[in-house]
Specification:
The protein is mainly α. It is built from 4 helices and no strands.
Length: about 90
C-alpha cells in the first residue's frame, strides 16, 4: 500500500506546490500520515504534520519548499528501502 501510494502522493504534492495550492498539500499530507505512522516513520510524520499545519494556517514564512523537498526525499528513501526487502 505504501509502495504504490508514494509516487501518487508525491505527484499530487508537487503539482499543488507548483500551483500554490497549499490546502491541497495539507489534504494530501493529512491523508498520508496514517501510512507513515503504521511504518514507524515518526520523523517523516512529524515533518508532514508541521507542513500540514503551516499550509492550513498560512504560516509559510520559513523554508516551506525546503521542508517539502526534505519530506519527499525521506519518502523516497523509505520507498527504496521497502522495495529492496527480500
Amino acid at each position: 500500500m505504501f509502495i504504490t501510494s508514494v509516487p501518487i502522493v508525491k505527484e499530487k504534492i508537487e503539482s499543488a506546490l507548483a500551483q500554490n495550492d497549499f490546502l491541497e498539500i495539507a489534504a494530501q499530507l493529512h491523508g498520508f500520515k496514517t501510512k507513515m505512522i503504521m511504518l514507524g516513520m515518526n520523523e517523516s510524520k512529524d515533518l508532514a504534520m508541521k507542513i500540514e499545519q503551516d499550509c492550513r494556517g498560512g504560516n509559510l514564512i520559513h523554508d516551506f519548499k525546503g521542508d517539502i523537498k526534505t519530506l519527499i526525499y525521506m519518502l523516497n528513501i523509505s520507498l527504496k528501502e521497502l522495495q529492496n526487502l527480500p
